[in-house]
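Module 6 notes. Inverse folding takes a fixed backbone as the condition and produces residue identities as the prediction. Think of it as a translation problem where the source language is geometry and the target language is the twenty amino acids. Below is one complete input and output pair. Work through it position by position during the lab.
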């Protein structure tokens, strides 16, 4: 075809093409993280270790180098820990003998996955300057297109799990490094949140001044504060946030009491000098303030004080119980005002994330030993840790979702008018195309680490003379003999109320 016979590319042609391409995008591109992680979630929550590991390995490999690799490496690391906690009877025999199928093999692979996750955390921290370009694309698609850089609780738990992995394979020096990093992560999170709030406020100001444009360069003026003040929108947003923050406890911003507990225990028992023991004392003293309702923390605060005075703890057993699964993020649709009264789009549905909590879990673990029976008590509600992070992230989520959704809706109204001016058919096709494209890109960012537990619990007791413990939870009982040692840690995991107990142990001293 020569230049003289080529017809101009009209809005009608654009509408027809957009209708087909938008339909394809709608069918393939509107999956949330809940959809993408369904296979892992099902297998993990049913304690199908082989299926869960296979699903996590597959997705982590497929996402290598991509925007979601960090999240899938976290899922992979936690899932491999599940295999490390199981005994041989709870795992299917491997197709051929392999060291990787052993507890040590699972732990080694788990640590490697967490190492890769940490590499991505550090990379995104160093590459923060590309944030503007990346998020401008998200403005006209959705927030799930922004690279997953890791939330504060992800980073703290990443290093806490690595510390546990190293303790379980007898590498306390490496565990020390990870506990130092976990402590620093909690300190850094406060400053990072302040920056996030400032960025959200700046973005809201730009939107009010009409300085945010869509991919065609169409600028839109939008008042985020006015939208939140709308009686319909404001009430729905308040209700959604309340549902997400229902389990909040007074831990403080970005504090994970389990990480504090492990820090205090390690430095009180494995400490090498006065500085270590003082750190252990302070951590256990802090823990007593965070979870005063836990009946064991007062004794541990006293243990930390005694260790700081040179009295080494001995003949103790700690039973750590990791139970349930942490919250997921669902998508909720909330009508927001566009302030375009004449366009028929005065309100448009916006997709927001909302935390959903899983209550299929064992509420406590019973321990019978030396003629006494005691139960574990919660030291950290991960529901609360995640909810607190969500509450702090909410202003940024709110601003970005309001601006993104409203800008696309306003742009759609402008383009729709232009298409209508081209004729009824063009307007109809264009409306279908724009509607499909808007729906397919108007999805919430539901990415979140789903293989975290619901709660960390623990109990402490004097080492029984016969070194025998009987653990009971959810109608299941398991008896173990403690390994020779002065301070033993028994680690128990229950994924759901009907799944088997996974039990392992290691020496802290």
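Target side of the pair, the amino acids:
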């Amino acid at each position: 075809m020569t230049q003289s016979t080529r017809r101009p590319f009209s809005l009608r042609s654009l509408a027809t093409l957009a209708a087909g391409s938008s339909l394809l995008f709608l069918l393939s591109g509107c999956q949330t993280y809940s959809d993408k992680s369904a296979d892992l979630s099902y297998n993990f929550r049913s304690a199908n270790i082989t299926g869960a590991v296979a699903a996590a390995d597959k997705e982590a490999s497929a996402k290598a180098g991509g925007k979601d690799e960090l999240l899938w490496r976290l899922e992979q690391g936690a899932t491999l820990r599940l295999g490390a906690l199981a005994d041989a009877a709870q795992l299917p025999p491997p197709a051929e003998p392999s060291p990787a199928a052993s507890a040590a093999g699972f732990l080694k692979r788990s640590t490697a996955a967490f190492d890769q996750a940490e590499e991505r955390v550090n990379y995104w921290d160093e590459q923060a300057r590309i944030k503007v370009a990346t998020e401008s694309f998200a403005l006209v698609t959705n927030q799930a297109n922004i690279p997953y850089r890791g939330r504060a609780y992800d980073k703290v738990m990443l290093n806490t799990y690595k510390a546990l992995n190293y303790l379980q394979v007898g590498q306390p020096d490496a565990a020390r490094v990870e506990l130092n990093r976990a402590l620093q992560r909690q300190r850094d999170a406060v400053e990072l949140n302040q920056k996030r709030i400032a960025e959200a406020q700046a973005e809201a100001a730009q939107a009010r001044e009409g300085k945010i444009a869509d991919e065609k360069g169409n600028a839109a003026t939008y008042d985020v504060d006015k939208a939140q003040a709308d009686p319909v929108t404001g009430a729905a947003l308040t209700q959604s946030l309340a549902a997400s923050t229902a389990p909040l406890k007074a831990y403080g911003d970005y504090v994970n009491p389990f990480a504090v507990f492990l820090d205090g225990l390690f430095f009180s028992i494995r400490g090498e000098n006065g500085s270590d023991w003082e750190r252990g004392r302070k951590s256990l003293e802090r823990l007593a303030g965070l979870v005063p309702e836990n009946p064991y923390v007062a004794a541990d605060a006293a243990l930390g004080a005694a260790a700081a005075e040179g009295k080494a703890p001995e003949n103790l057993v700690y039973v750590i119980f990791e139970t349930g699964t942490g919250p997921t993020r669902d998508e909720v649709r909330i009508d927001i005002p566009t302030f375009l009264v004449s366009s028929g789009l005065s309100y448009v549905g916006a997709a927001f994330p909302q935390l959903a909590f899983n209550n299929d879990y064992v509420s406590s673990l019973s321990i019978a030993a030396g003629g006494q029976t005691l139960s574990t008590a919660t030291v950290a509600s991960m529901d609360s840790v995640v909810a607190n992070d969500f509450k702090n992230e909410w202003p940024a989520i709110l601003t970005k979702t309001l601006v993104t959704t409203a800008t696309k809706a306003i742009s759609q109204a402008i383009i729709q008018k232009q298409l209508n001016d081209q004729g009824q058919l063009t307007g109809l096709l264009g409306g279908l195309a724009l509607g499909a494209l808007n729906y397919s890109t108007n999805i919430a960012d539901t990415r979140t680490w789903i293989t975290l537990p619901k709660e960390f619990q623990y109990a402490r007791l004097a080492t029984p003379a016969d070194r025998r413990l009987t653990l009971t939870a959810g109608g299941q009982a398991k008896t173990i003999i403690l390994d020779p040692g002065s301070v033993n840690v028994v680690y128990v995991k229950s994924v759901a109320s009907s799944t088997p107990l996974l039990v392992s142990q290691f020496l802290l001293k």
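Reference fact for the lab report: The first strand starts at residue 212 and ends at 213.
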